[in-house]
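=== How it folds ===
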Amino acid sequence: MTTTDSTSAEHPGRISATLRLVGRVLGAPTVGPLIALLLTMAFFTWRSDNFLQVQNLSLILQQVMVVGVLAIGQTLVILTAGIDLSCGTVMALGQIVMTKMAVANGVPAVPAILLGVLTCVGFGLLNGGLVAGLRLPAFIVTLGTFNIAFALTHTVSNDETFLPLPSPLLYFGRTFSLAGADFTYGVVLMLVLYAIAWYGLSQTAWGRHVYAVGDNPEAARLTGIKTGRVLLGVYTIAGLTYGIAAMLLAARTELGDPNAGQTTENLDAITAVVLGGTSLFGGRGTVIGTLVGAMIVGVFRNGLTLIGVEPVYQYLVTGILVILAVAVDQLTRRRRR
């Protein structure tokens, strides 16, 4: 009797613990985006026989590598309750600087790449300095630098396209075979950058400070966190990721194009962050979720193309997804209050 009674008493405890565990798993910020990605992939697998082929999946990764790297920097900014509207145009300027220097000015490829990356870092410093130093709204600051970078891109390039690019600039666009599919070295670099960003945000004091500033900057300041320094660092690192994305863009397109990356990549980076579960209000989200969000964007674009949907409707679907993601985020915040 005693054994039976104790066993019976243990059952509710086990069930309760299991339910709590399931609740924690389902409540993880990356679970929702991951489920959305799997459902999207299942839908396109049902609609197209070509979707789930290994070569097509590798193509999706190649298509999202530029946006994926841009979205790392955008995630850092949005985690601090800001937004960077200039990421695409800054990347375009960096790409033009490195390709023009290498092609038209005879600068060796590696120094040309460094000049392009440093140009993007400079814009990150400018954005961070204005946001952290003058306390200007990030939306206004980056809207201004969006236009500055756009004008400089066309001025520096004189609306010319630069090619052929030297071999080092094309390195990350080269492919290697794995499991019967071709993958670019740029995809490997993107995944390495996500691993570094994940470690920095989740395993270091700097990452905890980023979340604290985004959640409540005044409370963070009162605990001794130098909020201005954190913001400056975030925007500077974001500029660095835009410079790396510029290098990947040049490697993927194999030319320096002043019109590349200034609109769709800009919006797609923000879309990837939002779909990945990062709150536009700051302080909540993960960079792994952003990677999943970038994959959702890539899967939708690829899948809709495979089933014959016109590009204009692809943008329509993406816009609807962004609104739904923001609406879910807003409802979640209200429920937590």
Q: What stands out?
A: The mean pLDDT is 88. The longest strand covers residues 175-178. The radius of gyration is 22 Å. Residues 227-253 form the longest helix (27 residues).
